[in-house]
Amino acid sequence: MLMLVYQHLQPKSMTFRKKNKLGALPFNEEPFDKSPVCFKVREGVREKLKAVPNWQERLRKLVDELIEDMGDSCQ
Hints:
Elements lengths: L44 H6 L4 H16 L5
């Protein structure tokens, strides 16, 4: 004889308090913009870029340098 036993448990939810010491910490001092900058690249570039270590932060620095090089004309 086969007897099935079902145990109904209410899902346990963990509350996450603000200012928790175990919370996620930002990687940078300044917050990122909520909307990303997107642009198209040639075929194969996306995969090669993702293979570069720390590519996102390096690209952010290059964009900052590009904007600084433009000076006041970039507003």
